């Protein structure tokens, strides 16, 4: 995430990851319809300002608000949606978010330094953890490598949340380029798993580079890119051996073919779309790429201001 609120954040994760699995919340809201008839532009509520995205196997998409921490769920087949987690108050945000195996949402809480766990069915906040204090921006999250991993855009650490425990910080080292202190420069932003599932991928906006991170040690190695760019890189998506890098201020998504161990990646193409409005994150579902517009330059002091999630070929 980028813009006046910074890139993505995270709001306290879950001591209660060990709760019962959800029964039915991820089932489609309506009978499945052919992909060709699905809406290609999904409207989020006025005054919401979306940032992250998670999509269930059944085609329900979740996005969080940078303005008040609320969470919106929308059916990709019909465009019907509703807010499932109401506004959490001033100073709260929901930035990156992902679904875990049982169907809970792990939500990065931005400048609050928190991580939340949210029931994907009814939107209840199941648990909140204070992962960081002081100047911090918990930005993005991925589930894998033993738990959930969150980036902090102002500090050179990842926060690891194993199931049923509190988060702990893992320092980024090796070839990782340090982020200047003070919260004025963005470092770590989007995060993903490598295709082989053995390591993490993290984009560093400070040096416009992509890094492979060993989850055991935090040691980072720069990924060798053959063409393309990760400048202004925000959300990352790995789908098979394809890597999508959402480049917010560039109004584009760069697509790469990436090695299984993610030590190198080759540029394939650049996706642009006139509907992009400072896109931040994306998800692949049903052969389509769903891209979230954070619209940072819009007048979000006007409660009528709204944004969209747009669908394009993956």
Word description of this protein:
The chain has 314 residues and is mainly β. Helix content is 0%, strand content 43%. It has strands at 41-43, 54-55, 60-64, 71-75, 81-85, 97-99, 104-108, 114-119, 125-130, 138-144, 147-152, 157-161, 168-171, 173-174, 188-193, 200-204, 209-213, 219-222, 224-226, 233-239, 242-247, 252-258, 264-271, 279-285, 288-293, 308-313. It has a 5-stranded mixed β-sheet, with no helix packed on it.
Helical proportion? under 10%
Q: What is the gyration radius calculated from CA atoms? A: 17 Å
Describe the biggest sheet? 5 strands, mixed
Total number of helical segments? Answer: 0
Uncertain residue ranges: 3-32
Shape: globular
Query: How many angstroms does the end-to-end distance come to?
Result: 21 Å
Please tally the β strands and state the result: 26
Percent of residues in beta strands: 35-45%
Determine the structural class based on helices, strands and strand pairing: mainly beta
Please outline what is shown here.
By secondary structure, the chain is mainly β. The protein has no helices and 26 strands.
Structural topology:
Layout (H helix, E strand, L loop, with lengths): L40 E3 L10 E2 L4 E5 L6 E5 L5 E5 L11 E3 L4 E5 L5 E6 L5 E6 L7 E7 L2 E6 L4 E5 L6 E4 L1 E2 L13 E6 L6 E5 L4 E5 L5 E4 L1 E3 L6 E7 L2 E6 L4 E7 L5 E8 L7 E7 L2 E6 L14 E6 L1
Parallel strand pairs: 14-18, 19-23
Antiparallel strand pairs: 1-26, 2-3, 3-4, 4-5, 6-7, 7-8, 8-9, 10-11, 11-12, 12-13, 15-16, 16-17, 17-18, 20-21, 21-22, 22-23, 24-25, 25-26
Spell out the key features of this protein.
globular, single chain, 5-stranded mixed beta sheet, mainly beta, 26 strands, 314 residues
């Amino acid at each position: 995430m980028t813009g006046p609120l910074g890139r993505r954040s995270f709001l306290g994760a879950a001591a209660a990851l060990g709760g019962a699995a959800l029964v039915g919340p991820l089932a489609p809201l309506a009978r499945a319809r052919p992909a060709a008839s699905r809406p290609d532009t999904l409207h989020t509520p006025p005054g919401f300002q979306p940032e992250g995205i998670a999509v269930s196997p059944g085609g329900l998409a979740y996005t969080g608000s940078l303005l008040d921490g609320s969470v919106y769920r929308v059916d990709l087949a019909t465009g019907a949606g509703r807010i499932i987690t109401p506004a959490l108050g001033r100073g709260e945000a929901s930035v990156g978010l992902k679904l875990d195996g049982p169907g809970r949402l792990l939500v990065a809480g931005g400048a609050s330094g928190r991580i939340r766990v949210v029931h994907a069915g009814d939107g209840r906040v199941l648990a909140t953890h204070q992962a960081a204090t002081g100047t911090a921006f918990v930005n993005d999250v991925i589930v894998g490598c033993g738990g959930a991993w969150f980036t902090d855009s102002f500090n050179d650490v990842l926060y690891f949340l194993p199931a049923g425990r509190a988060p702990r910080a893992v320092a980024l080292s090796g070839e990782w380029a340090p982020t200047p202190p003070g919260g004025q420069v963005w470092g770590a932003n989007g995060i993903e798993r490598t295709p082989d599932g053995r390591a993490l991928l993290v984009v560093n906006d400070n040096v416009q580079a992509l890094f492979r991170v060993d989850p055991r040690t935090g040691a980072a190695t720069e990924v060798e890119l053959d063409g393309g760019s990760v400048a202004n890189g925000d959300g990352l998506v790995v789908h098979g051996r394809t890597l999508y890098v959402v480049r917010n201020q560039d109004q584009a998504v760069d697509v790469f073919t990436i090695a299984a161990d993610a030590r190198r990646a080759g540029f394939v193409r650049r996706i642009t779309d006139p509907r992009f409005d400072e896109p931040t994150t994306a998800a692949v579902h049903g052969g389509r790429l769903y891209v979230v517009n954070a619209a940072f330059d819009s007048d979000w002091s006007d409660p009528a201001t709204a944004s969209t999630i747009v669908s394009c070929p993956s």
